[in-house]
């Protein structure tokens, strides 16, 4: 228990940026035991004082923060230093460096990345579109998609689609169930849409599908988890992707974020070549 670090994540906004940075940071250290303490919308000295009071009760405390108000960051840094608490600002030096490089003063306004502008509403529209076009639904207007993902069951089509939608891409995904699963309009692809096939190792799919069946308390559908049947499914999907010259991504050892990054790269290449 003495090896557990108390990580205080203090943000003047939602804390989403800080969470992602810490996620990337902690991935670089093995056997790093920690407990996170989240404090969002921290915008006053009084709030910081209360957080530091809690910090002082802990052992092995580390503070990470994203606060744009210079007076507030100075107050936090000084108070942490006075109490011998390691404290690191994630954005401060970067904002200052950009300010010098661009020869512009930073606005230092919290939550500016969450302003309800055209980009925000575009993302909301993309999320709505993607949810409506999940798992082969709403094929009639699939030509409005930016990206179309195709694959057999449990190849991360839905989570990848939703992740991409949160980045503003309109995504449809189509499951391959049989030879008639893919609409003719997709096969012809007259509008030159970015169509990508997702594949995975059959052995990996067996594990995932068994876990899925267990979570649903389903035991009757043995074909769904049969290794040979899955091998046939995957091979048939590969043959289809090759036939129509659709690029493929093997998601076997990829996280959703890694798969999405590969999809975006293919999308950007296809757009340049369109």
* Sheet/helix structural class: alpha/beta
Question: Into which percent range does the helicity of residues fall?
Answer: 40-55%
Strand content: 5-15%
Please report the number of helical segments: 10
> What is the string of SSEs from the N terminus onward?
EHEHEHEHHEHEHEHHEH
The number of distinct β-strands equals: 8
Largest sheet composition: 4 strands, parallel
Distance between the termini: 57 Å
Mean pLDDT: 89
Query: Which overall shape is indicated by the principal axes computed on the Cα atoms?
Result: elongated
Q: Report Rg.
A: 24 Å
CATH topology of the largest domain: Rossmann fold
The tally of structural domains comes to: 2
CATH class of the largest domain: Alpha Beta
- Shape-level CATH architecture of the largest domain: 3-Layer(aba) Sandwich
* Unreliable parts: none
Biggest sheet, spatial arrangement of strands: 2-1-3-4
